[in-house]
């Protein structure tokens, strides 16, 4: 899956958290080929149709997009769209 549309650019000020969450949602919508951006409460497996390989691929792509490191132990934190956004925020900006 191409992710060049979602690669953040460092403008000196960085990207806003809301922009980051929107970028994650847009990426998930494209990856899972949905017409609408998924909401925070949507489940990657039940609502978007993810399987374990999808979760690994999504984590890998998010790592590349945001220059973070989502390890396999963090995959349970990515089962909902909102929690995936929270995880990316936490890894990108700290607690």
UniProtKB/TrEMBL annotation:
Q: Which PROSITE patterns match?
A: CARRIER, PHOSPHOPANTETHEINE
Q: Does the keyword ATP-binding apply?
A: no
One Pfam family name from the record?
PP-binding
Q: Which SUPFAM superfamilies match?
A: ACP-like
Domain Carrier: residue ranges:
15-92
Protein keywords: Phosphopantetheine, Phosphoprotein
Q: Which InterPro entries match?
A: ACP-like_sf, PP-bd_ACP, Ppantetheine_attach_site
Q: What is this protein called?
A: Acyl carrier protein
């Amino acid at each position: 899956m191409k992710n060049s549309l979602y690669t953040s650019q460092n403008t000196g000020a960085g990207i806003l958290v809301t922009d980051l969450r929107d970028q994650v949602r847009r990426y998930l919508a494209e990856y899972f080929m949905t017409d609408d951006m998924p909401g925070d409460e949507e489940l990657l497996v039940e609502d978007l149709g993810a399987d374990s390989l999808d979760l690994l691929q999504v984590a890998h792509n998010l790592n590349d997009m945001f220059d973070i490191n989502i390890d396999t132990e963090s995959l349970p934190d990515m089962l909902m769209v909102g929690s995936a956004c929270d995880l990316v925020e936490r890894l990108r900006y700290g607690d």
